[in-house]
Amino acid sequence: LTAILGYSELLTGTDENDPLKLKRYSLTIHDNVLRLIEIVDDLLLLSKIETGEFLQKTTFSIQDLFNELEELYKQKLVQKKIQWLTSLENSSMTLYADKFRIRQMLINLVDNAIKFSHEEGSIHLRAKKEKKGILLTIQDNGIGIPFIDQERIFERFYQVDKARSSHSEGTGLGLSIVKHIVEQHQGNVSVESHLGKGSIFSIYLPQSIEET
Ligand code: ADP
Known about the structure:
Helix content is 46%, strand content 23%. By secondary structure, it is of the alpha+beta class. Strand 6 (188-194) and strand 7 form a beta hairpin. The longest helix is centred in the N-terminal third of the chain and has 32 residues, at 19-50. The protein is elongated, with a radius of gyration of 20 Å.
């Protein structure tokens, strides 16, 4: 908001015969408005999730959900020449959960995996049956996360360092939304990552006997 105010003041004081400056200032305002919209959208989503509306649980196919995500990100994957892989213990695996929120959670993780991957990288989504639940993992071979930051990335607004995400912006809210959704399902999320090698996010979602 401060940047928008500053640049709009500059704009009003700029000579109308200086089109280059006029253009530069209005583009900066435009970019900052887009960023603000992104932050407000994420904050609204987070507060909607936090107000704890009841989960609307249904049984749905994990493979179908992975396919939906591939479809959603097709363009970005092609642009960055990223390979998309999925492995399920068996193709008919289902999850009993709030599909809308689980989709949102995976969107945030896949979005990051693409953002922090190099060209020609790969993203691998897996689903595995555990003793009392399902384990989903999202693996990339991108830039990785420094060990000291790994504990804090799930905090609101936490970003590892501005410089490395400046090319892709972001709000620092994505992973706190992920954590919230997982906890609402009584699950847990963890990360294993090595700088320069990539990251694996693991989500464990308990399923009661009748659900599996
Ligand atoms: P952002 O909007 O910045 O992506 P997130 O809460 O989703 O916010 O992530 C917090 C930070 O964690 C990011 O800024 C990034 O530095 C780091 N991060 C998240 N996912 C990955 C990933 N797959 N690879 C490397 N770094 C990641």
